Amino acid sequence: MSIxxxxxxxxxxxxxxxxxxxxxxxxxxxxxIGEFSAEATCDGSNGVITVTDKDASATxxxxxxxxxxxxxxxxxxxxxxxxxxSKAGVTVSFAENWQPNATYRIRVKAANGLDKDISPNLTTPxxxxxxxxxxxxxxxxxxxxxxxxxxxxxxxxxxxxxxxxSSTAPATTTDNAPSPxxxxxxxxxxxxxxxxxxxxxxxxxxxVVGGGAVYFGMRRRGAxxxx
Length: 227
Prior knowledge:
37% of the residues lie in helices and 24% in strands. The chain has helices at 5-29, 162-176, 180-193, 196-226, and strands spanning 36-43, 46-53, 60-69, 72-76, 81-84, 90-95, 103-110, 115-117, 122-123. It starts with a helix and ends with a helix. The relative contact order is 0.09.
Protein backbone atom coordinates (compact mmCIF):
# COMPACT_ATOMS: atom_id res chain seq x y z
CA MET A 1 0.00 0.00 0.00
CA SER A 2 1.63 3.18 -1.18
CA ILE A 3 1.59 6.42 0.77
CA UNK A 4 0.61 9.48 -1.13
CA UNK A 5 2.52 12.71 -1.05
CA UNK A 6 -0.41 14.36 0.61
CA UNK A 7 -0.22 11.97 3.53
CA UNK A 8 3.49 12.63 3.89
CA UNK A 9 2.90 16.34 4.06
CA UNK A 10 0.24 15.89 6.71
CA UNK A 11 2.59 13.80 8.82
CA UNK A 12 5.40 16.37 8.40
CA UNK A 13 3.19 19.23 9.48
CA UNK A 14 2.00 17.26 12.48
CA UNK A 15 5.56 16.43 13.53
CA UNK A 16 6.67 20.03 13.18
CA UNK A 17 3.72 21.18 15.22
CA UNK A 18 4.53 18.69 17.95
CA UNK A 19 8.18 19.73 18.02
CA UNK A 20 7.20 23.39 18.19
CA UNK A 21 4.81 22.66 21.03
CA UNK A 22 7.49 20.76 22.89
CA UNK A 23 9.88 23.63 22.33
CA UNK A 24 7.44 26.12 23.81
CA UNK A 25 6.81 23.82 26.73
CA UNK A 26 10.56 23.46 27.35
CA UNK A 27 11.01 27.19 27.24
CA UNK A 28 8.15 27.63 29.66
CA UNK A 29 9.83 25.26 32.16
CA UNK A 30 13.35 26.65 31.67
CA UNK A 31 15.01 28.97 34.25
CA UNK A 32 14.47 32.68 33.51
CA ILE A 33 15.58 35.90 35.21
CA GLY A 34 11.98 36.84 35.93
CA GLU A 35 11.77 34.00 38.44
CA PHE A 36 14.32 35.67 40.75
CA SER A 37 13.72 38.50 43.22
CA ALA A 38 15.77 40.22 45.93
CA GLU A 39 14.95 42.05 49.19
CA ALA A 40 16.88 43.86 51.95
CA THR A 41 15.62 42.86 55.42
CA CYS A 42 16.74 42.84 59.05
CA ASP A 43 17.58 39.87 61.23
CA GLY A 44 17.38 41.55 64.61
CA SER A 45 19.96 44.34 64.44
CA ASN A 46 21.81 42.73 61.50
CA GLY A 47 21.11 43.49 57.86
CA VAL A 48 20.39 40.68 55.38
CA ILE A 49 19.95 40.58 51.59
CA THR A 50 17.66 37.71 50.57
CA VAL A 51 17.33 36.32 47.01
CA THR A 52 14.34 34.10 46.14
CA ASP A 53 14.34 31.60 43.23
CA LYS A 54 10.90 30.45 42.00
CA ASP A 55 12.19 28.37 39.09
CA ALA A 56 9.85 25.37 38.84
CA SER A 57 12.38 23.43 36.75
CA ALA A 58 14.84 23.47 39.72
CA THR A 59 17.67 24.51 37.47
CA UNK A 60 20.82 25.19 39.50
CA UNK A 61 21.75 28.86 39.54
CA UNK A 62 24.62 30.86 41.10
CA UNK A 63 23.78 34.13 42.87
CA UNK A 64 26.33 36.92 43.39
CA UNK A 65 25.60 40.22 45.14
CA UNK A 66 27.51 43.47 44.61
CA UNK A 67 27.28 46.84 46.38
CA UNK A 68 26.97 49.61 43.79
CA UNK A 69 28.57 53.06 44.03
CA UNK A 70 28.17 55.67 41.27
CA UNK A 71 27.17 53.01 38.74
CA UNK A 72 30.08 50.65 39.51
CA UNK A 73 30.72 47.70 41.80
CA UNK A 74 32.13 48.93 45.13
CA UNK A 75 32.51 45.45 46.62
CA UNK A 76 31.17 41.90 46.47
CA UNK A 77 28.96 40.94 49.40
CA UNK A 78 30.17 37.66 50.90
CA UNK A 79 30.69 34.76 48.51
CA UNK A 80 28.55 33.51 45.60
CA UNK A 81 25.85 30.95 46.53
CA UNK A 82 24.09 28.28 44.49
CA UNK A 83 20.37 27.64 44.62
CA UNK A 84 17.85 25.27 43.05
CA UNK A 85 14.48 26.91 42.88
CA SER A 86 10.99 25.55 43.21
CA LYS A 87 7.51 26.70 42.35
CA ALA A 88 7.00 27.75 46.00
CA GLY A 89 10.36 29.52 46.06
CA VAL A 90 13.79 28.82 47.58
CA THR A 91 15.81 31.60 49.24
CA VAL A 92 19.48 32.29 49.92
CA SER A 93 20.68 35.02 52.30
CA PHE A 94 23.72 37.29 52.36
CA ALA A 95 24.69 38.96 55.64
CA GLU A 96 25.22 42.67 54.97
CA ASN A 97 24.89 45.67 57.30
CA TRP A 98 23.37 47.73 54.53
CA GLN A 99 22.89 51.47 54.79
CA PRO A 100 19.60 53.22 54.00
CA ASN A 101 18.91 53.88 50.30
CA ALA A 102 21.94 51.85 49.18
CA THR A 103 21.94 50.07 45.78
CA TYR A 104 22.89 46.43 45.19
CA ARG A 105 23.32 44.49 41.94
CA ILE A 106 22.32 40.78 41.96
CA ARG A 107 23.80 38.59 39.21
CA VAL A 108 22.19 35.25 38.28
CA LYS A 109 23.98 32.55 36.28
CA ALA A 110 22.08 29.33 35.50
CA ALA A 111 23.06 26.03 33.90
CA ASN A 112 20.78 26.66 30.93
CA GLY A 113 22.90 29.65 29.88
CA LEU A 114 21.10 32.36 31.86
CA ASP A 115 23.54 35.13 32.87
CA LYS A 116 21.71 38.34 33.81
CA ASP A 117 21.15 40.84 36.60
CA ILE A 118 17.88 41.03 38.45
CA SER A 119 16.22 44.15 37.12
CA PRO A 120 15.92 46.69 38.53
CA ASN A 121 18.78 46.80 41.02
CA LEU A 122 17.89 46.37 44.68
CA THR A 123 17.48 49.61 46.71
CA THR A 124 17.51 49.23 50.51
CA PRO A 125 14.86 50.82 52.77
CA UNK A 126 15.25 54.39 53.99
CA UNK A 127 15.59 53.20 57.61
CA UNK A 128 18.49 51.09 58.82
CA UNK A 129 18.15 48.10 61.14
CA UNK A 130 17.66 49.14 64.75
CA UNK A 131 20.65 48.55 66.97
CA UNK A 132 19.81 46.70 70.15
CA UNK A 133 20.71 48.84 73.16
CA UNK A 134 22.46 46.85 75.91
CA UNK A 135 20.61 46.55 79.20
CA UNK A 136 22.05 48.85 81.87
CA UNK A 137 24.31 47.22 84.40
CA UNK A 138 24.82 48.33 87.96
CA UNK A 139 27.57 50.88 88.20
CA UNK A 140 30.71 49.86 90.08
CA UNK A 141 31.99 53.42 90.39
CA UNK A 142 30.03 54.33 93.52
CA UNK A 143 32.56 55.38 96.17
CA UNK A 144 33.13 52.90 98.95
CA UNK A 145 32.60 54.23 102.46
CA UNK A 146 35.86 55.65 103.80
CA UNK A 147 37.46 54.46 107.00
CA UNK A 148 36.76 57.83 108.61
CA UNK A 149 33.04 57.25 108.22
CA UNK A 150 33.25 54.02 110.21
CA UNK A 151 32.00 54.60 113.78
CA UNK A 152 34.83 54.23 116.34
CA UNK A 153 34.93 51.02 118.26
CA UNK A 154 33.41 51.24 121.71
CA UNK A 155 35.95 51.36 124.55
CA UNK A 156 35.70 48.86 127.37
CA UNK A 157 35.78 51.73 129.90
CA UNK A 158 33.06 54.29 129.21
CA UNK A 159 34.30 57.88 129.10
CA UNK A 160 32.27 60.16 131.38
CA UNK A 161 30.62 63.08 129.69
CA UNK A 162 31.42 66.70 130.44
CA UNK A 163 28.21 67.03 132.42
CA UNK A 164 29.06 64.05 134.63
CA UNK A 165 32.62 65.35 135.24
CA SER A 166 31.46 68.82 136.24
CA SER A 167 28.82 67.45 138.60
CA THR A 168 31.09 64.83 140.17
CA ALA A 169 34.23 66.97 140.82
CA PRO A 170 32.73 69.33 143.45
CA ALA A 171 31.22 66.41 145.35
CA THR A 172 34.64 64.70 145.56
CA THR A 173 36.36 67.90 146.79
CA THR A 174 33.71 68.49 149.48
CA ASP A 175 33.88 64.93 150.83
CA ASN A 176 37.68 64.36 150.86
CA ALA A 177 39.50 67.71 151.05
CA PRO A 178 39.32 69.31 154.57
CA SER A 179 38.33 72.97 154.75
CA PRO A 180 40.45 75.48 156.71
CA UNK A 181 37.87 75.55 159.57
CA UNK A 182 37.89 71.81 159.83
CA UNK A 183 41.71 71.85 159.97
CA UNK A 184 41.79 74.34 162.85
CA UNK A 185 39.27 72.32 164.77
CA UNK A 186 41.36 69.18 164.38
CA UNK A 187 44.49 70.97 165.55
CA UNK A 188 42.70 72.35 168.62
CA UNK A 189 41.33 68.97 169.45
CA UNK A 190 44.78 67.48 169.12
CA UNK A 191 46.24 69.96 171.61
CA UNK A 192 43.47 69.37 174.14
CA UNK A 193 43.86 65.67 174.01
CA UNK A 194 47.69 65.69 174.40
CA UNK A 195 49.71 65.33 177.79
CA UNK A 196 51.42 68.70 177.49
CA UNK A 197 49.54 70.19 180.57
CA UNK A 198 50.41 67.26 182.78
CA UNK A 199 54.07 67.41 181.84
CA UNK A 200 54.15 71.17 182.49
CA UNK A 201 52.57 70.68 185.96
CA UNK A 202 55.13 68.04 186.94
CA UNK A 203 57.96 70.20 185.71
CA UNK A 204 56.67 73.16 187.80
CA UNK A 205 56.44 70.97 190.88
CA UNK A 206 59.98 69.77 190.37
CA UNK A 207 61.16 73.35 190.05
CA VAL A 208 59.43 74.29 193.33
CA VAL A 209 60.86 71.26 195.11
CA GLY A 210 64.32 71.99 193.78
CA GLY A 211 64.08 75.63 194.80
CA GLY A 212 63.00 74.64 198.29
CA ALA A 213 65.88 72.22 198.57
CA VAL A 214 68.34 74.89 197.52
CA TYR A 215 66.82 77.36 199.98
CA PHE A 216 66.99 74.98 202.91
CA GLY A 217 70.47 73.93 201.92
CA MET A 218 71.72 77.54 201.98
CA ARG A 219 70.12 78.24 205.32
CA ARG A 220 71.72 75.21 206.78
CA ARG A 221 75.08 76.18 205.45
CA GLY A 222 74.69 79.65 206.93
CA ALA A 223 73.81 78.31 210.31
CA UNK A 224 76.85 76.10 210.32
CA UNK A 225 79.14 78.98 209.43
CA UNK A 226 77.62 81.09 212.30
CA UNK A 227 78.73 78.63 214.85
